[in-house]
Structure formats: C-alpha cells, structure tokens
Amino acid sequence: MSTVPRPLRGLYSGNLAAVLERGWIAIKTQNWVIIISGFVEPVLYLLAMGLGVGALVGDVAGPGGKPISYAAYIAPALLATSAMNGALYDSTTNVFFKLNFAKLYQAMLQTALGPMDVALGEIVLALLRGLLYAIAFMILIAGLGLATSWWAILMIPAALLIAFGFASIGMGITSFIKNFQGLDIITFVMLPMFLFSATLYPIEVFPAAIQWFIKAMPLWHGVEMMRHLSVGHITGATLGHMAYFVAMSLAGMVMTTLRLRKLFLR
Fold first, then answer.
1. Which helix (H) or strand (E) holds 69?
2. Whole-number Å distance between alpha carbons of 221 and 72
3. H runs (alpha helix) in the chain
4. What confidence tens digit (pLDDT) does each residue in 210-224 have?
C-alpha cells in the first residue's frame, strides 16, 4: 500500500533517493573547475571591495547601529550572493540542458517517478552546491576575522534557505525558456539585483520609492538576514526575512511541480 499522501499521488512517488543518486554520479564526473568558479566571484569582491576599498571607507553602521568594518559589512552580503549564484546556475543553465537537449526529465517521468520527485531532487542537488559555497566562504570570513558573533555559524543553514528559494523559483522559470538566449534574461535580472540589494552600501542611499522596490527583491532579504546573523542581532525582522524565503521556496516547488506535470504528463 502506498505511503504517499493521497493529494500527492501522481505527483510524488516517494523515491527521491533515486534522483539524488543519479545526480551525485553525474556530479562526480563533472569538471570541478566549473563548479568552483561560482565561488570565486564573491571572494574577489570581498578582497577588492572589503579589504581594498574598506581601508578607505573605515567603519560603517551595522545591524542595530553598531559600528563594524566595511569588510565585515559586505562579507555576509557576499555569502548570500554566493548561495544565490550556486543555486541559480544549477537550476537554470544545468536544468535547461537536461530539459531541452538531454531529455533527462522526460525519461525520468516515464518511470515510477513523479514530477515532484524530479523537481525536489534537482533542487536538493542545487542546495549541495550552495552548501559547498557557504561552508568555503564561511571559513574564509572566519579566517579574516569578519565573523564577530557565534550566531554567525547560522549563516550556513541560512545560505541553504536562500539557495532553496532561488533554486526552486529558478527551475520553474527555466521550464518556460525555449532557447539559450532566454537564459540571458536571468543574468540580466541577477546583476542589478546584486548591485542594488544593499550588498555593497546601505539601502538608505536610495530614494524612498526605490527602497521599497529593492525590499521586494529576494536577495535583499537574504543580505539582511545574513547581516543580522553575522553580528548576533536577532529580531522579528530576521524571522521575517526567513519567512520570505520559506514562502518563496514553497511557491517555487509548486510552480515547478505543476509545470513539469503539464509538460510531460499529458
């Protein structure tokens, strides 16, 4: 007798492990230089902006108004960016190839697997990439003395939450893209989101109307959540940022699952 809840039957077979096993075998044969490349960009920003420009800027106001170094100010934001980059690469470019050229998902859904097995499996694999980036970047931050509170260790699971949100939404959006040129739209969105999500300077430098627009973007919530954790400034706003990504993850999972079912289970 099936242990899958009745509402999920036809969508989820309960065999997520099969998807993860296939994905892990594929990861082991990949070029690890490509995987590591997504970690390099935030590190270069930290070294150039945090340590370089930071020497000229001096201290800035951190969460709660406590002065912190400029490097300590942008380091949590770059960790959030690193989690976003890793998750979006796996859930967009990688998924696009599997969907449109390798025809992998079509083959998977001809077995007992359901669309939720496939969606959740791909998202978890993207989380593994985000976890690698988060741990490596956290070690770098700690080594540079930029983690000023024991709460900072929670930035690793927080990075996974950020990665889950971006991966689930990214995979759903990718299922609508028909050609490689369409992937440029995702890059076009990522760059301004990185530049304007208060990653390198406070949001207060923008006019009030633009601030509201920025606060609607997911990366801003990730940046603020990371900054709060980095100095141990835990408030209701911190929980609000977490709730944003929980809702984003659920919405992305629903969109991706329904989209895969529509594409392949006619």
1. strand 67-69
2. 18
3. 16-28, 32-45, 54-57, 70-89, 95-100, 104-108, 115-143, 155-174, 180-196, 208-215, 218-231, 236-264
4. 999 999 999 999 999
Query: By the 8 A CB rule, do 13 and 114 touch?
Result: yes
Taking only the tens place, the pLDDT of each residue in 183-242 is 888 888 888 898 889 898 889 888 988 999 999 999 999 999 999 999 999 999 999 999
Contact 70, 54 (CB under 8 A): yes
pLDDT, tens digit, 9 for 90 and up, residues 12-47: 666 777 777 777 777 667 656 666 666 787 888 888
The DSSP H or E segment spanning 68 is strand 67-69
Nearest Cα neighbor of 227 from 55, 71, 44 is 71
Model pTM? 0.85
What is the distance between the alpha carbons of residues 106 and 140, in angstroms, rounded to a whole number?
Answer: 41
- Cβ–Cβ < 8 Å for 114, 14: no
CA distance 125 to 127: 5
